[in-house]
Amino acid sequence: MSRLVPYPLLSLSLLLMWLLLTRFSLGHLILGSGIALIAGKAMAALQPAQPQIRRWGSVFRLVGIVSLDIVRSNAAVALLILNGGRHGARRSDFLQIPLTLRSQPALALLAIILTATPGTAWLEHDAETGVLLIHVFDMVDEEEWIRLIRDRYEALLLEIFE
Amino acid sequence: MTHLETVPLWLALPIALFLVLGSTLTLLGTVGLVQLRSFYDRLHAPTLGTSWGAAGIILAAILLFSWMQGRPVLHELVIGAFVMITTPVTLMMLGRAALHRDRAEGRGGVPAAVPHPDPSEGPPDVGALSPEDLESTRPPKAPPMAIR
Amino acid sequence: MSATILSAALTYAQFALALAGCLACWRLLRGPRAQDRVLALDTLYVTAMLLFVVAGMRLGTTFFFEVSLVIGVLGFVATVSLAKFLIRGEIIE
Questions:
Q1: What CATH architecture is C2-88?
Q2: ipTM confidence
Q3: Where are the membrane-spanning stretches (chain B) (predicted)?
């Protein structure tokens, strides 16, 4: 099984994408499955590090939290642009956060989360020291941002990947 | 305008709502792009367009096309997933480029690079190439750019 | 009734996205620095992509989907290579 389908998640999502791009029929199901299997084989030749998802429950909780945060921060940033940054009182700043997260897929996911929520921009991550440099659009309280990222995202990501 | 008339009112309202929401957020993002003062502030503005701006318009398109063709038409989700995955890459690279350039030019207001010892670089695997060959294949580092 | 609502919303969306494209163009021309222009170009690509999705909705065809996907891919590649150029001063090394 694992020799035939080395990357089941990748193959499954490729098949899903194939069916989304065409219309659902038996022919497309077979063709898409073939392509997904071949692509999985090709991926195995590249030998990327395989992420291990440990807890699926935390994945769904993370998705819920992140989608809520995206809506909220969208509204917050849109409002800040509309009223001119609380009429000039908004302060943006850089923020350095020491992370304990080391696994590459988890860091990639954190980058997607931080960029998808308007108001935080990922700038730099140092792989040796684990210090993450982000830019915060509306810096009210430094401690609160650090707590938000470490407790809300990093803890969940640690649960999922490590 | 014939295909728009077939849509019932209960579906037309959410489609219109998502459209207006998505396009307004994208517009606000570019307003921020014009209005904000520093580059790092402006880096935040387009994420409005790529998060809920794109999501709203894509949801509206999914609803409309699914009704018109009488089956779930979800292929617009591919655009959404694509935008979701590529935006962090582009913005991260742009942010790093700006940071790198500001540091190289010694502009203030940018945090310094995290200090750590230089990674001991082993001799590169040059194969049969002699040092002279290497010198000729690898030109010296480009001089500081003339672009601003 | 629903056709009126939908066509009003589509017109509004098209105007808003076109205006957004113009604003991105303004930042693209204005600068002041190279990274601002690249950021504006990226925003312009995203706006054009969304504009094509809305145009497809107005005309009732799904053909514009491929157009917007191609624009998205080109925009991604263009922005990444431009950012890489800003970091290193060269793309192919």
A1: Orthogonal Bundle (1.10)
A2: 0.87
A3: 12-36, 48-67, 73-94
